[in-house]
Design goal:
The protein is an all-beta fold and about 625 residues long. It folds into eight domains: about 90 residues, Sandwich (Immunoglobulin-like), CATH 2.60.40; about 60 residues; about 70 residues, no CATH class; about 60 residues, no CATH class; about 70 residues, Immunoglobulins (Immunoglobulin-like, Sandwich); about 70 residues, Immunoglobulin-like, CATH 2.60.40.10; about 80 residues, Sandwich (Immunoglobulin-like), CATH 2.60.40; about 80 residues, Macroglobulin (MG2) domain (Immunoglobulin-like, Sandwich), CATH 2.60.40. It is built from one helix and 66 strands.
Length: about 625
């Protein structure tokens, strides 16, 4: 070939000297060429020698690549001619390899399907004639896919995809022996014929082709492939004469929802119940899914068995509840419960709310209920127990009164509580947590109640008054005085102390005040006493003074007289010249001056009519001295 091309080149070089100027026109066999993988034939007519721009030397070249092509030819006269450049243009791609995408298994079990699709962004041409992107197949099929781009160029076809369908010949079961036996020593032989390339097992679980049957019931064979597809044989019923095939009643359909119990009950009575889960009662509660059977033994000893009963327990999302803190707290606090629920399920709190967060400040049991649409099961979250510690405010009570006498004690107590904490003068480390407090000292006391979760409530304060006298009584005053003259005496009493003054030989005004005025009218055995009594009568102390003396200075008692005595207001002073009287003073029984009469050169004087009845002291002042006389007003 190299020698031939070389010779052609030499001929062409020689013929160049004799080349014609006629234009050669290249003709394409495919005027619609536009895709990378399209094919066309280029030619220029009949000549003796051809040399194409791609190196080809044939009269016609077949190309599938866009570009510029030209050819030089030599005719029979040895003249050469070169064509103009021929442009072969392409708009589309067509080089993409189509890929089939499967959604599902291409090894189908009976009743299953698989969905096929292709690369995105193209039109589709399936070998089945379909033009959709997503196709569903449930039968055996071999197919490929070609993509068509926007320019109309077709891609390279995909690899051929084969969809298989598990549809073998059903296994056949034959029996050897009677099907109406009863005793367990009897039985029959079941033989299975099946495709040996597949797995085989009996509905009882055995895998051999021969099954020795001793128990009544329904028996069938199952063949399956590696993908898990199964096909069942027709069943053979082993139903002995006089043997009842047990029937089972269910408390609901055979779907077992979470946290529920499904009860299966044998319809007929039997001497023996033998469930496949080991239960031996007529009715059995199931909490787990699975296949279950029931064997009965009748009164003749014949055993019968049910077909497997499938209880389905679907895998359902269970909602949950999260908290932002403790769920046990004191009154006034709160906790946020946050729902972790699947938005694809209908769910709500027990109060009907669908809020994600709920603020709880009261005691109660809180949970979420959800409905699974596929199974119809209603499921519930775990319950959150919120405990709010309400605590009753303590009220301090006492056994008698709040007044504490010296040497006595008071018992303080309150309404019941889980815990106590006393505060006050007698609340020590040993006593402050007792339910009662024995008080021996006055002061302010308070109590706090503490409940089981540590919540605290405080009482109003209570004051215990210690009723004692603060000091030893004393009397301060003039113990050397004149008769018939008022003297003041004072005792050292607290403001709340009760006082009682007493005297022999003296008249006391305001006998319950801390300062009293005494009119001494008798010196014989004269004394002055005061009794101090605490505010509530718990303590009394008495003091007396008896060393009292008088100083009689210029006081006359017998020279003058007052008449009438008693009087109704007017009285006469006799025994002295009226001119000698300077003034007359009149005092009431309390020692207060009630009236003064100046000398009017008369012996008759009047006690003011507004004064009340009683004892008065009349002080007559004369040029001879003072005269004190008692006067009674009626």
């Amino acid at each position: 070939m190299k020698i031939l091309i070389t010779k052609i080149l030499i001929v062409l070089l020689i013929a160049t000297a004799y080349a014609t100027e006629d234009d050669l026109e290249i003709v394409s066999s495919n005027p619609n060429f536009k895709c990378t993988n399209d094919v066309t034939a280029l030619s220029v007519g009949d000549y003796d020698v051809y040399l194409w721009s791609n190196g080809a030397i044939s009269p016609t070249i077949v190309v599938n690549t866009p570009g510029y092509y030209s050819v030089t030819v030599i005719d029979e006269d040895g003249c050469s001619s070169t064509s103009n450049k021929f442009r072969l243009s392409g708009e589309g791609d067509g080089s993409t390899l189509a890929t089939i995408i499967t959604m599902g298994n291409t090894e189908l079990c009976p009743g299953e399907s698989v969905t096929l699709s292709g690369n995105e962004g193209y039109r589709y041409e399936w070998s089945t004639g379909d033009t959709l992107n997503n196709l569903m197949f449930n039968q055996m099929q071999k197919l490929s896919l070609t993509l068509i781009d926007s320019a109309g160029c077709k891609s390279l076809p995909s690899d051929t995809l084969e969809i298989t369908l598990f549809n073998p010949i059903r296994p056949e079961i034959t029996s050897t022996g009677p099907n109406d036996f009863c005793n367990e020593s009897d039985g029959t032989i079941l033989t299975a014929t099946f495709n040996s390339n597949l797995k085989f097992n009996w509905n009882t679980g055995e895998t051999g082709s021969v099954l020795k049957v001793k128990n009544p019931g329904s028996y069938y064979g199952i063949t399956s492939n590696e993908a898990g597809c199964e096909i069942l044989s027709s069943p053979i019923f082993i139903n002995p004469v006089n043997t009842t095939v047990p029937a089972i009643l269910s408390s609901s359909d055979f779907t077992l929802c979470p946290n529920e119990v499904l009860t299966l009950t044998a319809y007929f009575d039997s001497n023996t119940y033998d469930w496949s889960n080991g239960a031996t009662t007529k009715a059995v509660d199931f909490t787990e899914g699975g296949n279950y059977t029931l064997n009965l033994v009748d009164e003749n000893g014949c055993r019968s068995v049910t077909a497997p009963i499938e209880i389905e327990k679907p895998d359902i999302y269970i909602p949950d509840i999260f908290t932002n803190g403790p769920t046990t707290f004191c009154e006034g606090g709160a906790v946020i419960l946050k729902a972790d629920a699947d938005p694809d399920h209908f769910w709500q709190w027990q109060n009907g709310s669908q809020a994600i967060d709920t603020v709880v400040s009261t005691s109660g049991m809180y949970y979420i209920a959800a409905l699974d649409f596929d199974s119809g099961c209603r499921v519930y979250s775990d319950t959150v127990n919120v405990i709010v510690g309400n605590i009753e405010e303590p009220v301090i009570k006492y056994d008698s009164s709040t007044v504490l006498c010296s040497g006595d004690s008071i018992i303080l107590y309150s309404n019941p509580s889980a815990g106590y904490f006393w505060d006050g003068p007698d609340a020590t480390d040993e006593t402050q947590r007792d339910s009662i407090l024995i008080v021996k000292n006055g002061g302010e006391y308070m109590l706090a109640h503490i409940n089981e979760i540590g919540c605290v409530a405080g009482s109003e304060p209570i004051t215990i008054t210690s009723d004692t006298l603060s000091s030893v009584p004393t009397i301060v005053g003039d113990y050397n005085f004149e008769l018939n003259v008022f003297e003041d005496y004072t005792t050292n009493a607290a403001e709340t102390t009760q006082l009682l003054w007493e005297s022999v030989g003296g008249i006391i005004n305001l006998s319950n005040e801390d300062t009293v005025t005494v009119l001494w009218d008798n010196i014989i055995n004269a004394d002055l006493c005061v009794t101090h009594t605490s505010a509530f009568g718990c303590e009394q102390k008495k003091i007396c003074i008896s060393d009292i003396t008088t100083s009689i200075t210029n006081i006359f008692l017998d020279e003058i007289k007052l008449s009438p005595n008693p009087c109704k207001g007017n009285f006469i002073v006799s025994g002295i010249e009226p001119a000698a009287i300077k003034a007359v003073k009149m005092y009431n029984n309390n020692g207060s001056l009630v009236e003064i009469k100046q000398n009017n050169n008369t012996a008759t004087y009047e006690l003011n009519t507004a004064t009340s009845k009683g004892l008065y002291l009349v002080d007559v002042l004369t040029n001879k001295g003072r005269f004190l006389k008692k006067l009674y007003k009626q």
